[in-house]
């Protein structure tokens, strides 16, 4: 994979450092935008169901491109993939920074996504082939510390920038950093890769794009168009058919683009299921909380960012701790405890009111992040640990793809539920107000009443969405009891190298 690895017995810390810096700014960009959504809604005159496309559109591109990363990692060098990824991300950041209309902003985000789709699977694959299985939990934990520091910095930094500048400054701030990382990678990454006789099956790429893209687009459109829209259910149906066709085709190819054989390893299949379900639930806090604190409570963007800071700090600091604990006790006990905390705290978020205290929100979010920190990395690492080395690119690509799909579906479901329930509650509250109104209220009283009804209805809609997220998280909690400590499977096949030989080959190339 890299000449520097070949010459040393240790892990390629130089390459890992450059890759982590690149991945860090893509993570930071995502968390920067969450606090900005209400400001973007106001400035560009878009609704919550529309602005969510800045998140789900990002996931849509990721969902389409990530399945190709298993092929790309095997075909091209780390240097070429990194430079391509960070160049696309930089271009998208520049476009978004100068966007004056929502479609242009969305286009910039989707170009950004095309870069980040390559970055994370590439980094994860280098991590997997660089550390032995008995040290992988600790390594992944420290990787998580660096990656999760982005959520710690992002919301507060975003709040401060929006408080003092236009939301476009969020992208202008990232642009010079991305350019510097691009230059560092260009001059310092010198790995070489022997020419690999590997060709992309373009029909598989078409099926994958239509399949994952159709599912993501269909679920994401449901928030604005409704589930009864032909555009919604038709794209979902086409997506499902294409995805089934894609899976069948991959099973028949000698060198599949994305190897679904990873699911014959039970711990990987289980870890993927838990991660998908948790991702669906997790996005409730990421999307709904900023809307609640800024739109309903009128809390400033800076204070909203500061509210998220303790939780993000807990998430980042716990990552190396849970990594070490994973190496000692395995993933099940961590996942069970973490998911129990996640379920309880998500339920309490479904009890928000118009006068919920700021400190209550800070503590509840911090405890929720504590629970999530005990689940994500240990569960994912345990599943990947069971795979033979030749399946690492496919395992990381599969995990990232499914997490993007689950996140987009979860976002669409929760935002749609919030919007629909808000309309229902608004109608109920309006009827109740008219029944109790004495005489003919003045125009000013009617206007004030409508504003109060809108706020109360949105609050109830958010609470209903959090309650749904509670039940989703509970599914992951039940699945966690079936986790067992994974051992790497050996599957030497006739005429093919063993996993140990394949690992050595991956490191050498």
TrEMBL record:
SUPFAM superfamilies in alphabetical order: MFS general substrate transporter (SSF103473)
Domain of life of the organism encoding this protein: Bacteria
InterPro entries registered for this protein in UniProt: EmrB-like (IPR004638), MFS (IPR011701), MFS_dom (IPR020846), MFS_trans_sf (IPR036259)
UniProt keywords, alphabetically: Cell membrane, Membrane, Transmembrane, Transmembrane helix, Transport
Tagged with keyword Iron-sulfur: no
CDD domains listed in its UniProt record: MFS_LmrB_MDR_like
TM segment ranges: 12-33, 53-73, 80-102, 114-133, 140-162, 168-188, 200-219, 231-248, 268-293, 299-317, 329-349, 465-483
Protein localization: Cell membrane
Region Disordered: start-end pairs: 490-509
Domain (Major facilitator superfamily (MFS) profile) ranges: 15-488
Coiled coil feature spans: none
Matches recorded under Pfam families: MFS_1
Membrane topology designation: Multi-pass membrane protein
Presence of keyword Hydrolase: no
PANTHER family named among the record's database cross-references: MAJOR FACILITATOR SUPERFAMILY MULTIDRUG TRANSPORTER MFSC
Protein name as catalogued: DHA2 family efflux MFS transporter permease subunit
Species in which this protein is naturally found: Bacillus lumedeiriae
